[in-house]
Design goal:
Distance between the termini: 45 Å
Number of helices: 3
Low-confidence stretches: none
Mean pLDDT: 84
Number of domains: 1
Helix content: over 70%
Strand content: under 5%
Length: 90
Amino acid sequence: MFAYLLAGLIVGGLMRYLRHAPGDPPIGVQLAVGLIAAGLGGLAVNVLLGEDFLDVNPWGFTAAPIAALVAVAFLQSRGRNALADETVDG
């Protein structure tokens, strides 16, 4: 389980480092979203495969960073869209 959370923190930090733009959420929010998404992604794969709930297997460790990547990318795009809407409307 700790490996999934660590993967989520790494993905959240890398996304912040590589794709930071004005209007992105703060780093703490991005790290938290990456952490939560990776944990849930890894656990969901464990449940679907019938593995032990907190087991770390290759499929779960593959799904964890992918889930974190999707969640943080969605978060960043929503932040940019909100900023763009503010500048157009206001």
